[in-house]
Amino acid sequence: MSERIRKIANFVLILVFTTLLTCCAAAPSQETSQTNSETVQEIVSEEQSQETSQTENTTEEFTTQTIYSEETSQVEKITDKICIQIGDYKFTATLEKTTAANELFQMLEEAPLVLELDDYSGFEKVGPLGKSLTRSDKQTTTQKGDIVLYNGSNIVMFYGSNSWSYTRLGKIDDLTNWEEALGSGSITVTLSLL
């Protein structure tokens, strides 16, 4: 009987040992699974971090572009003004968004323009620019303070009104003393940048 008990005991030991080996073999597999899971989570976290960083960079670039655009707009608003001096009188004028007005501005970037203007028909002063500008003539009814291009190479400043085909250049901002400054007869006008 003791032989039989010894065989059963050996069988139980083998069974326990096998079970332990199986459990031990399974344990690293679970650890590997956990390690793989942690690695996947780290990769996902890094990707999310990169996406967040890219979003922040995009937002920063957009903000920078917006600020740049606003600054550019401000520059345009500042630089679309010119100074007009007639004797002791000084005026500012806002330029139109035309090619001719842009070309006039470019001329003034090089140097101020001194022009001789003559009275015409009791409502305008007109004189040669010394250069032809790009025309975009349209039938226009002018008002006091309007500045236009006539026939591509003459500048006209109005103290009255007229209907004709002109290219708009600009308009006087404040008409106080405008008629007095233009006076009667010929005048010398200096155009410059502010």
Task: List unreliable stretches of 5+ residues.
Answer: 58-78
Please give the radius of gyration in angstroms.
Answer: 43 Å
- Level of helix content? 40-55%
Structural category: alpha+beta
Assess the beta-strand content as a share of residues.
25-35%
**Main sheet record:** 8 strands, antiparallel, barrel
Order of helices and strands: HEEHEEEEEEHE
Number of helices: 3
Number of strands: 9
Name the strands of the widest sheet in spatial order.
1-2-8-6-7-4-3-9
What is the terminal separation in angstroms?
121 Å
Shape: rod-shaped
Mean pLDDT: 78
Fold and architecture overview:
This protein is α+β, with helices and mostly antiparallel strands. The chain has three helices and nine strands; from the N terminus they run H-E-E-H-E-E-E-E-E-E-H-E. The protein is rod-shaped, with a radius of gyration of 43 Å. 19% of the residues are buried. Residues 58-78 have low confidence and may be disordered.
Features of the shown structure:
single chain, 194 residues, alpha+beta, eight-stranded antiparallel barrel, 3 helices
